[in-house]
# Entry
Amino acid sequence: MNDKKNDTKLYNVIFPLWVILMIPQAWLIVLPGNFIIDSIVLIISMIALKISGKMRFYIRHIFIVFGFGLLADIIGSAFMFIMTFLFHMSVSGDELYMTIPALLISAGAIYLLNYHVTFRKQEKSLKFRLALIFAIATAPYTFLVPTSWMYNR
# Structure
């Protein structure tokens, strides 16, 4: 008889989604934090790209950028979840072969969603720059933080 236990635990994958599922109060930190970061990136981008009507542009785009950022993070997390739990590829969640592709998938999703939806009415050059700025500046770099730093393992 095989007495081996399945040692796969949710903390094998790092992303606020898992924290949010285990500690719902984390929404109070994650959502405002992401909104503030998205706001800062949008404001700096509008200044750097000399966008006129900044307040109107901000109000028109911030909630869409924010929502797509969260969606893109979930997409990257879903990749890590699938690789970890369905294919048993991860041992501790610290492996770069898991976290870097998840980061790139999320950044790609941020770019595509913002390019094709959020900034679709902007001229091609501007929507390219804005989508690229958001993909680089707001990618979920927390995926790269080793979970072993948070758990005594």
User: Anything to note?
Assistant: Confidence is low (pLDDT under 50) at residues 6-16. The chain has one domain: 34-147. The two ends are 28 Å apart (CA to CA).
